[in-house]
Amino acid sequence: MGEGGCCPSMELFRSEPMQLVQLIIPIESAHLSISYLGELGLVQFKDLNAEKSPFQRTYATQIKRCGEMARKLRFFKEQMTKAGLTPSTRPLTRVDIDLDNLETKLGELETELIEINANSDKLQRTYSELLEYKLVLRKAGEFFYSAQSSATAQKREIDARQMGEVSIDSPLLLEQEMSIDPSKQVKLGYVSGLVPRENSMAFERILFRATRGNVFLRQAVIEEPVMDPMSGEKVEKNVFVVFYSGERAKAKILKICEAFGANRYPFTEDVGKQGQMLTEVSGKISELKTTIDVGLMHRDNLLKAISYQFEQWSLLARKEKSIYHTLNMLSFDVTKKCLVAEGWSPVFAINQIQDALKRATFDSNSQVGSIFQVLHTKESPPTYFRTNKFTSAFQEIVDAYGVAKYLEANPGVYTIITFPFLFAVMFGDWGHGICLLLATLFFIIREKKLSTQKLGDITEMTFGGRYVIMMMALFSIYTGLIYNEFFSVPFELFGRSAYACRDPSCSDSTTVGLIKVRGTYPFGVDPAWYGTRSELPFLNSLKMKMSILIGVAQMNLGIVLSYFNAKFYGSNLNIWYQFVPQIIFLNSLFGYLSLLIIVKWCTGSQADLYHVMIYMFLSPTDDLGENQLFAGQKTLQMVLLLLALVAVPWMLLPKPFLLKKQHQERHQGQSYALLQSTDDSFEVEAHHDSHGHEEFEFSEVFVHQLIHTIEFVLGAVSNTASYLRLWALSLAHSELSSVFYEKVLLLAWGFNNIIILVVGIIVFICATVGVLLVMETLSAFLHALRLHWVEFQNKFYEGDGYKFNPFSFALLSDEDD
Amino acid sequence: MGFLITTLIFIVAGVIASLLARICCNKGPSANLFHLTLVITATVCCWMMWAIVYLAQMKPLIVPILSEGE
């Protein structure tokens, strides 16, 4: 293995070389070491205690403590959002605080906050009770006052009537009623209070039934909703006064009040006392109000103080939790004085890791240093690409299909260019390209600000792919210039059109057509084509052939990459029995087709390429006749056909047999070694063990190769056909945009009416943005994705690796929320 | 302008772009090779697209026929 030759290894083409390292860390410096390694973020720790449950591990209690702290922090956050405070993002003076201090501090703050909350709840309840009481005093006072005044009025009337002669229409019972013996008069009791309005009818009915009508209930509506002391919610309520007689009735009424959630308040008949109580209650209310305000202010101050350091604390808590989590993955060595860690790290990070360990030893005043050593293993290391903000999104596109095998050729390198390019072939319009570019430049310019913010799902995705979109926009501006479309309008940007009328009268331009008078239009599609009757036949033929040429080129690139893989892994078998026949097969069929297309263009021949290709298979010995493009074509076709036919068994047969032979040779060598050195039997056994699963099943290998061959042969046809989607989507895009331009904008323009024009412009903009810029972008993106994942990557990419997932604080902060 | 001249322009543009990449972001040999690959791929893609469209119009089998009413 190894990159041979003159060139340095290309960045991103192969994943970083990794190694399995073992760290032996003294217990006293373990915490600090892990913390420094977390800051470095280049080690992926292996779980050495996989068989232990989370509760059996060494640092389970610390993790529990961290969880408790996280709970407290969540409580603070909840309180802060309730109080309308946001944790200040700017880090104030960075006070170094360790876990124990933080824990006690958080505990203190929590108890204080809970106490304050409890007190303020209590005060609030008393306050609302007093408020209700005040309302009752007012409303009930009104009842009594009105009752009294009506009673005195009645009395006066009766007095007056008694003084005069008795009239006929005076009530007969009145006299009787009035002449009740005062000694027999029963003292009426009453209860006053507040009842929720929605219950008031039921309340009245129940009272009436329970006492068999021996009550008198008065209710008055309170206009504004009142704070309920129990629930703390605003409720619409009525003031009520119930008059009753007798103790039994009273007991019943009290029970009913309780059941209906009606709060009772004492009340006196005496007007003087009423006034006194009212002033008393008002005084109490204002007093309580100030107390509550002071309490709230105190709480707000406390929360504000918390909010300044909240971010720092929660970061610390999360870091500590992750450190203990990592420490739990380490195992004790025999002496129980050291922790043993195993993990993957990139080779370039050796010095940084050793440096971090040394610093940790020094800072924790440990007498013994940590030991760092590289282990040799047969295990496949994780795949790690060092990407930057530009390349990471492209790498994501590749990783979404499958993470590269360790040190496998990475299609991500070419994807950076070919993905936006294929997108642009389908999205060729430089007007739309500019719109897309402006949109993505908005994200790129505000990158710093936006990367710290929380964005919505879709915005987040667009922001993540901002550089992909930028490349797509740049390429679609280029292909738009080639297609000569600016919102589907052609421009003569690069010189004059090559076509002109045959004669000055231009009479036959609609029947026979224009004639080519100059050299070919130098850059892109001649503007003369647009709007003509022969536009579609011309563009269809052009775009279809272009799709095939681009497709064949990209598939060849894929096969060439498989050569680099085979060479890198030192597998001559794959070069000679996979790469060579594959490239011969593809090019003798579709490479030849591409050649025919180009020759036809260059010579202006009328030959029918379908016919040529079909009869190349059906009757290769026949004369080509008028379809002949160049001399010796028939011989070439026969040679190519033979090559293609030979390439299929070449792919299929030798590789399984050679693999079998190789395996037998290796097996023989092994048994020979075993006989010679009995001392090393342990090692050999271990060696043998790791190879134990490599039982050679010839039939399995053969079937595998058969499937591969069939897949490639059929794939060569179907993948080439699949590239025709470039033609279809590009056609759909240009047709759609010309429909919007002609049927909306030009139509509106034709009416010569400013309102219709404005409406037309609005509809045009909406259609352009909604359909062309959003929907079409999405569909072209998906098709470009498919062409890369299936047609390009299946030529060489295994994608069965696993991602390097280092223990890093930088990755921690955004995963937790 | 013929096919060869424009192709030459593409080559020159590619060379200039790779030199610029080399001068502006010189970050060690492996990064330079990476940038060079990107520039070459981009140039080849752009050239190929242009060349296809140019060749297709060189010896036209059909000519633009104006639609009626124009």
Automatic annotation (TrEMBL), chain A:
InterPro entries, alphabetically? V-ATPase_116kDa_su, V-type_ATPase_116kDa_su_euka
| Topology of the protein relative to the lipid bilayer | Multi-pass membrane protein
List this protein's GO terms for biological process.
Answer: vacuolar acidification
- Location(s), subcellular: Membrane
| Gene Ontology CC entries for this record | vacuolar proton-transporting V-type ATPase complex; vacuolar proton-transporting V-type ATPase, V0 domain
GO molecular function terms noted in the UniProt entry: ATPase binding; proton-transporting ATPase activity, rotational mechanism
Q: Its domain of life?
A: Eukaryota
Q: Does the keyword Transmembrane apply?
A: yes
Q: Which UniProt keywords apply?
A: Hydrogen ion transport, Ion transport, Membrane, Transmembrane, Transmembrane helix, Transport
Any Pfam family matching the protein: V_ATPase_I
Record carries keyword Transmembrane helix: yes
The record lists the membrane-crossing segments as: 421-445, 466-483, 546-564, 576-599, 635-653, 754-775
State the protein's purpose: Essential component of the vacuolar proton pump (V-ATPase), a multimeric enzyme that catalyzes the translocation of protons across the membranes. Required for assembly and activity of the V-ATPase.
The entry assigns this protein to a family as follows: Belongs to the V-ATPase 116 kDa subunit family.
- State the protein's name: V-type proton ATPase subunit a
Protein species of origin: Nelumbo nucifera (Sacred lotus)
UniProtKB/TrEMBL annotation, chain B:
Which GO cellular component terms are attached?
A: endomembrane system; proton-transporting V-type ATPase, V0 domain
An annotated Gene Ontology molecular function: proton-transporting ATPase activity, rotational mechanism
- Identify the Pfam families for this entry: ATP_synt_H
Keywords attached to this Swiss-Prot or TrEMBL record, sorted alphabetically, are: Hydrogen ion transport, Ion transport, Membrane, Signal, Transmembrane, Transmembrane helix, Transport
Q: How does it sit in the membrane?
A: Multi-pass membrane protein
Q: Which residues cross the membrane?
A: 31-56
What GO biological process term is on the record, naming one?
A: transmembrane transport
Any signal peptide, and if so, which residues?
A: 1-17
| Cellular compartments annotated | Endomembrane system
* Coiled-coil regions, chain positions: none
Q: Is the keyword Iron assigned to this protein?
A: no
Domain of life assignment? Eukaryota
Q: Is Transferase a UniProt keyword of this protein?
A: no
Q: Which family does it belong to?
A: Belongs to the V-ATPase e1/e2 subunit family.
Name used for this protein in its record: V-type proton ATPase subunit e1
